[in-house]
């Protein structure tokens, strides 16, 4: 007699979002039932108000919903209101987050216009102050947040962990009957630093709906372990990010591997992909990766994404690759206008396929799809619209014709916004 096998039903989709207290950051709501928020950070010298404002605008137009800027010197703090003014003149309305280390208490006190212009303050308990000054300087920043009605992200980082807390936990660990390994002690130090700092902020008077926590590390498995634990021990809104993720494919892979696991488990209210850009490359790459991560997981929709086959021996021509790139770039260029003009266009699906094997089938699943001819196939490219074959393109102008079909579809299919 064969053994009975119990079939466990598999559900498609992430776990329900972890409950968190919602925080209002300027016009953006983080946590609660709000969509997961994408944020980024500039790498300009904040003292240069013009270049910083340009990069903030570039990040915001790419889809960053919060933008963090370094505030490290009196001149940088003085530049913040000028940056905000320049952004307003450019028609860019994005909340600015001030990143403070070491001297944040002094800068906020001396530059009230900076304290007012920022939508949120980010402080690190590991370097807000040292020794006897730590609590006083931490309290000073929290009091400034109260004065100006600003939320605070308490962001603990593996590379700047409070060494006195770590030493105390190591002593405590030595007394255990079964001591933890060093990595677990370090993770506990991160979590306690965040939670104890949040408790101090509340004691000073900052409400729970003004506090966001993060505990960033640079290792994938460590980040997953830290946030799984942190998520069970509080209901603060959580910011996710793998710190110092790296450059190019390494940074994208590491960040996606860590954040995807946590997001699938319902953990995380706002994310940043901390990529090191290639020399001369745009900072907006990290925004696009964050959006694509959320969109491919089915958590949010930002822009139409193009399904394209990887290519094989049937598709030695590069034309389908060029067309896929052309379509994706066209969509990204048009989205700022489409987003304002049409409702729901971010959910549009596209397919650019290279031969007859999977081409027609994948194209039928998309709102608009094209199946290009592979090696030995007739020089014709059928176009499918909402699952039905609509036309066949031929000749040397297929790319422009297909983009025209896409633009016409968007204009016909999506309702124009009235406000």
Automatic annotation (TrEMBL):
Cofactor binding mode and count: Binds 1 [4Fe-4S] cluster.
Annotated protein name in UniProt: 4-hydroxy-3-methylbut-2-en-1-yl diphosphate synthase (flavodoxin)
A GO molecular-function descriptor: 4-hydroxy-3-methylbut-2-en-1-yl diphosphate synthase activity (ferredoxin)
Entry keyword set: 4Fe-4S, Iron, Iron-sulfur, Isoprene biosynthesis, Metal-binding, Oxidoreductase
Enzyme Commission designation: 1.17.7.3
Positions with a binding annotation for [4Fe-4S] cluster: 309, 312, 355, 362
InterPro entries according to UniProt: Dihydropteroate_synth-like_sf, IspG_bac, IspG_bac-typ, IspG_C, IspG_TIM, NO2/SO3_Rdtase_4Fe4S_sf
Domain IspG C-terminal, chain residue ranges per copy: 306-406
Organism annotation: Rhodanobacter ginsenosidimutans
Keyword GTP-binding: no
Catalytic reaction annotation: (2E)-4-hydroxy-3-methylbut-2-enyl diphosphate + oxidized [flavodoxin] + H2O + 2 H(+) = 2-C-methyl-D-erythritol 2,4-cyclic diphosphate + reduced [flavodoxin]
Gene3D superfamilies in alphabetical order: Dihydropteroate synthase-like, Sulfite Reductase Hemoprotein, domain 1
One Pfam family recorded for the sequence: GcpE_C
The keyword Oxidoreductase is assigned to this record: yes
Cofactor: [4Fe-4S] cluster
Boundaries of every IspG TIM-barrel domain copy: 22-290
Family the UniProt entry places it in: Belongs to the IspG family.
Protein's job: Converts 2C-methyl-D-erythritol 2,4-cyclodiphosphate (ME-2,4cPP) into 1-hydroxy-2-methyl-2-(E)-butenyl 4-diphosphate.
UniProt pathway: Isoprenoid biosynthesis; isopentenyl diphosphate biosynthesis via DXP pathway; isopentenyl diphosphate from 1-deoxy-D-xylulose 5-phosphate: step 5/6
């Amino acid at each position: 007699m064969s053994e009975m096998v119990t079939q466990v039903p598999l559900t498609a989709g992430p776990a329900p979002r972890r409950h968190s207290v919602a925080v209002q950051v300027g016009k953006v709501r983080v946590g609660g039932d709000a969509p997961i928020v994408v944020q980024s950070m500039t790498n300009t010298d904040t003292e240069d108000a013009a270049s910083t404002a340009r990069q903030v605008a570039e990040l915001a137009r790419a889809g960053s919903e919060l933008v963090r800027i370094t505030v490290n010197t009196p001149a940088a703090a003085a530049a913040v209101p000028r940056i905000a003014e320049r952004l307003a003149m450019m028609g860019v309305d994005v909340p600015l987050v001030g990143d403070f280390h070491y001297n944040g208490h002094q800068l906020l006190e001396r530059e009230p216009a900076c304290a007012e212009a920022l939508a949120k303050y980010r402080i690190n308990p590991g370097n807000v102050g040292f020794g006897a000054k730590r609590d006083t300087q931490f309290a000073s920043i929290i009091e400034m947040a109260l004065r100006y009605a600003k939320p605070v992200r308490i962001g603990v980082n593996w590379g700047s962990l409070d060494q006195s807390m770590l030493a105390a936990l190591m002593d405590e660990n030595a007394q255990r009957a079964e001591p933890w390994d060093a990595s677990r002690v370090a993770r506990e130090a991160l979590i306690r630093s965040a939670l104890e700092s949040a408790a101090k902020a509340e004691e000073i008077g900052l409400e729970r709906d003004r506090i966001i926590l993060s505990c960033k590390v640079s290792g994938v498995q460590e980040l997953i372990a830290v946030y799984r634990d942190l998520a069970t021990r509080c209901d603060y809104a959580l910011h996710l990010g793998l710190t110092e993720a790296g450059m190019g494919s390494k940074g994208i892979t590491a960040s996606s591997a860590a954040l995807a696991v946590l997001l699938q488990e319902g953990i995380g209210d706002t994310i940043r992909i901390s990529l090191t850009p290639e020399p001369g490359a745009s900072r907006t790459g990290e925004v696009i990766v964050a959006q694509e991560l959320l969109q491919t997981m089915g958590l949010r929709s930002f822009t139409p994404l193009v399904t394209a086959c990887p290519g094989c021996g049937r598709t030695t021509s590069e034309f389908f690759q060029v067309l896929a790139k052309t379509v994706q770039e066209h969509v990204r260029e048009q989205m700022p206008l489409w987003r304002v003009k049409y409702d729901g266009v971010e959910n549009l699906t596209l397919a650019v396929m290279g031969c007859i094997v999977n081409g027609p089938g994948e194209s039928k699943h998309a709102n608009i799809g094209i199946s290009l001819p592979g090696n030995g196939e007739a020089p014709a490219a059928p176009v499918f619209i909402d699952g039905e074959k609509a036309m066949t393109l031929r000749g040397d102008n297929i790319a422009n014709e297909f983009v025209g079909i896409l633009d016409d579809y968007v204009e016909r299919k999506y309702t124009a916004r009235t406000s």
